[in-house]
Design goal:
about 260 residues, mainly alpha, about 0% strand
């Protein structure tokens, strides 16, 4: 990785010098790099690229780990209250990625800000590029959870089939006992046979609401919001601060 980032850094700086002729790290093509340019070429850019490559490597390991877990004989429960068969705890891995998302978003926002402040660009020229990169980052960090989608789909289908059959047997037995077999209202009052009817309905609703990805909305928003913070200075060039504040408060209220 170290060798790769230094080759990449050299290539980027060399191509930038050829395209523009003069840059802040090399004022003229005939001269060498400035002291700031050397720091940029030998420290800042390689370190940044190395961290990016290392996180790509870590995400590959995390994805492989999730894939291995999905191949286990998991005892998933269709009626689990987390609506993910018991896999809801995996969603807790998302919020820490918010810090990495913040860092990546800061780099992209900084590059766009340089174009706006020093080259006369406007935010509208880069908004779709930023949005596309932001969505790509979200897919990279949350996408591995899609590994469990086939299992959750199968769990929902199996759970609906099982609880339909159970509900049919129970309601038929209830009908035979209390409607066709015994019409004594005094005996019916206080019976424990009625309670499970509500429980069956609740269980059936939980199964129908199983999430196809084991991601909790609050955890996703906790990861999502830090990535938007670096874009706020860019938005201030086109959107009033009051609108941005209202949007952030709304997102925070949803997460709470």
């Amino acid at each position: 990785m170290v060798i790769a980032v230094y080759i990449s850094s050299y290539t980027m700086i060399f191509e930038a010098s050829l395209q523009s002729g003069n840059t802040w790290f090399r004022p003229t093509p005939q001269t060498g790099l400035t002291l700031v340019g050397y720091w940029y070429a030998l420290v800042a850019l390689p370190v940044f690229q190395f961290l990016i490559l290392r996180w790509i490597y870590r995400m590959a390991i995390w994805s492989k780990c999730l894939l291995d877990i999905s191949r286990l004989n998991l005892r998933l429960t269709a009626t689990h209250p987390d609506r993910a068969g018991g896999l809801g705890l995996l969603s807790q891995s998302l919020p820490p990625f918010g810090l990495i998302l913040f860092a990546l978003s800061s780099v992209v926002s900084g590059a766009i800000a340089s174009r706006i402040l020093f080259e006369g660009g406007i935010f509208q020229e880069f908004q779709w590029t930023y949005a596309a990169l932001f969505v790509l980052f979200l897919i990279i960090f949350a996408g591995p959870m899609l590994i469990f989608t086939p299992k959750l789909l199968a769990l929902q289908a199996r759970g609906l089939e099982e609880y339909r059959a159970l509900a049919t047997r129970y309601t038929q037995s209830f009908h035979l006992k209390w409607v066709e077999g015994n019409d004594d209202r005094k005996e019916l009052l206080g019976t424990s046979d009625i309670g499970p009817l509500g429980g069956l309905e609740t269980s059936y609703k939980i199964i129908k609401k199983i999430r196809f990805v084991p991601i909790d909305l609050n955890d996703f928003i906790t990861m999502f919001v830090p990535g938007l913070v670096p874009a706020l200075p860019l938005l201030l060039t086109v959107v009033p601060p009051s609108v941005i504040a209202k949007t952030l408060l709304k997102l925070m209220s949803v997460a709470a």
